[in-house]
Amino acid sequence: MKTWALTLAVLAGSSSGLWMSANAQTEQQLLTELKRTEHQFGKNDTRTAEFAFSVGNFYHRQQQNEKAQPMFARAMSVFEAHQGNHADLLRYYSDQLARIDMEEGKKGESEKLFKQAIALGDRLPGKEKTYAVPNTLAGLAALYESECRYPEAEAALKQRLEMRHRFMNAGQVDLALVDLAELYTRWQKYDQAQHVFDELLHISPMPVQVRQAYSAFLSKTSSKSQPVAN
After folding, report:
1. pLDDT tens-digit profile of 200-229?
2. Based on the domain organization, do 123 and 212 belong to the same domain?
3. In this structure, are 168 and 185 located in the same domain?
4. How many independent structural domains does the chain possess?
5. Of the residues 19, 43, 140, 188, which has the maximum number of CB atoms within 10 A of its CB?
6. Could you tell me if 190 and 219 are in contact, meaning their C-beta atoms sit under 8 angstroms apart?
């Protein structure tokens, strides 16, 4: 649909350094298309709510939070009212808004939304649940880590790993272990970090994120005894 294509185009452009006049033009385009979507589907349709959330995200990127928040609130109220056939929309946008709130330092609201997204994700069947919930657990862990709530971050990351492991091949090393290793490094639990890295270092060829994380670990611990393999 032309409306959604325009949304993606203008939102992509809004994050790449447009001038103020261009931003104003983009804003007007979005608001015009939002009105068209309202006219076509109705104010309380989930498609209109998704567009409103996109407009809110545009304002968030422009640091116009006084305009962003009403759009987010409007969208979330629609998702909350349509938990039947569109239940996963509330889960998905709870996760997205949690990340936005975390960026803005609204950590209490962020935690509440992450937990709501996880609770809703737990209702999903099989593989859908296993793909959706671990991503939100990673966000929640990042929030906990930013508050130095390391035991809670560890628990969230371990739950994430356990869920992902259900659909991995036997013997496959999960790159999500990098996040756990980095948590232990920041927590100064260096022995536990090394133990996790020992698993990751068996991946060949070594992924960039493993190399970077392990180099940071060695720098942190001033250890030169275990150089990063090529």
Report:
1. 998 988 999 999 999 999 999 975 445 444
2. no
3. no
4. 2
5. 140
6. no
